[in-house]
Design brief:
Layout (H helix, E strand, L loop, with lengths): L6 H17 L8 E2 L12 E6 L3 E7 L5 E17 L7 H19 L17 E15 L8 E16 L6
Parallel strand pairs: 1-2
Antiparallel strand pairs: 2-4, 3-4, 4-6, 5-6
Length: 171
């Protein structure tokens, strides 16, 4: 039986890259990040993350006749930078115009989910790459707790895994 994909480790690595990426801005930004989606905090900015619908494909056999599967796990990474009523006119827009292209580049430069700064120097088993594939550069998100909508961006990361599948046959 092939080793199980470690999606918890993947999510923790994404969280570490989010914090590190914001700190690497020309004007460093301190933020928090969590590897789950149902979260809200007073300290802004912060990241929340969730797994999306995976796609699954058999990509054939390797040179030894073993089956290889390719699985893509999308992750929605939401960066909340403030409330819609917060800051001066255009401040949220201006911040996102700096944060979004920087973070797209940051994620794509770290597609192996490794970084020496956070100590994540080893590879994640079976990961081919994890890159930004789409996103929302300026979003207004519902906030049921306070009733005041939040402003931020969403990044759709796609983590590509492939690994050998061992067929189990009944005798």
């Amino acid at each position: 039986m092939a080793a199980t994909l470690n999606l918890q480790d993947m999510m923790n690595r994404i969280v570490a890259l989010e914090i590190e990426g914001m700190a690497a801005l020309p004007t460093p930004v301190t933020c928090d990040a969590v590897p789950y989606f149902f979260h809200q905090q007073e300290g802004i900015p912060y990241w929340i993350n969730r797994l999306g619908n995976y796609t699954f494909a058999n990509v054939g056999e390797d040179e030894w006749g073993e089956e290889i599967d390719a699985i893509v796990y999308p992750v929605t990474a939401r960066l909340v930078i403030g409330h819609i009523t917060q800051g001066y006119k255009g401040e949220n827009d201006g911040n996102l115009q700096v944060y979004v292209p920087h973070m797209v580049e940051w994620f794509n430069e770290h597609e192996n989910l490794r970084t020496a700064t956070t100590g994540l120097t080893t590879s994640l088993d079976h990961l081919i790459r994890c890159r930004t594939e789409a996103g929302i550069a300026f979003g207004i998100f519902e906030n049921r707790t306070t009733g005041v909508p939040q402003v931020g961006a969403e990044f759709t990361l796609e983590a590509y895994f492939n690994y050998e599948i061992t067929q189990q046959y009944l005798s």
